[in-house]
């Protein structure tokens, strides 16, 4: 299984496999996606001022390795290819520090350094998210830790900040929703491990206890007397539903704070695509479709901001169309994240899945 992640070019080692193409101003590939890097190429990336790149780990799909793009198709791709919007890039060192910081917070909710550590961890994540004026997140690059609770907290905070940017939050609000996202599950520190990590369906009594975690988290922050109500509301209400069928208070509509409405979308998505002992992960495509169908439960503007913030199929991805054609993604449409513009590898045919009526029946499988 191949995993994709961002790594600082200063951390690159010979033999790592690059998972993006490095192109010049004319769109010509200088280093092709899938290349196993050597010392010369690593030095080139560093000299060009490229701070981080995508790499892939694990064995690549054999079918994808066998794909050769004909020259006539490559010319079409070079002509129509449009780089993705600026994306969040969290270096491996940042991921590890933030993940470790969140774990410390969960393990030390009563410690005197809790408040200071919260702000330090949040400041580092905010800085990383905003360092390159990112307006989108490549959802295939999330996952900073193998431990679910801490990984999940960082992923949700990262997505919530990018969604919040599209939603229209101010810079100070983005900082606060980052804190709220990092701590949205801190109340789980008060749930017994045999319930929290149970590899099977919870009993009714166990689930009733689990549903109290957002209230526990709110109380942890309230007892500190140092967190604004906005941040605490995001923690308290992130499981509330617009139709009033959520928990712990059964709030609905505008009774739910905007931070909680945004965090809820990020929380649901990340939970859907994450494998757990008791469930298989949904594909990112299916998870996005499920989010789109939850307009009765999730805030519609938050859903729309989510859809306008994510990149589902990064430019240069190889996809399979429902007509059986292999194709390369050449341009994303932020209004239709599941319907990018692609070029068929064999024929060079352009399929504008979002705007060409002739492509209405074609989907990415």
Can you describe this structure?
- There is one protein chain.
- The chain has helices at residues 39-47, 62-65, 71-80, 92-107, 114-130, 148-167, 171-182, 193-196, 204-210, 213-224, 229-237, 258-273, 284-292, 300-307, and strands at residues 3-8, 17-18, 22-23, 29-31, 52-57, 137-138, 310-311, 318-320, 326-331, 341-344, 350-352.
- By secondary structure, the protein is α+β, with helices and mostly antiparallel strands.
- The chain has three domains: 3-66, Molybdopterin biosynthesis moea protein, domain 2 (Alpha-Beta Complex), CATH 3.90.105; 68-83 and 315-365, no CATH class; 92-311, Hypothetical protein af1432 (Orthogonal Bundle).
- Strands 8-9-10-11 form a four-stranded antiparallel sheet, covered by helices on one side.
- Helix 4 (92-107) packs across helix 6 (148-167) and helix 11 crosses helix 12 (258-273).
- The chain starts with a strand and ends in a 13-residue tail after the last strand.
- The model has no long low-confidence stretch (mean pLDDT 86).
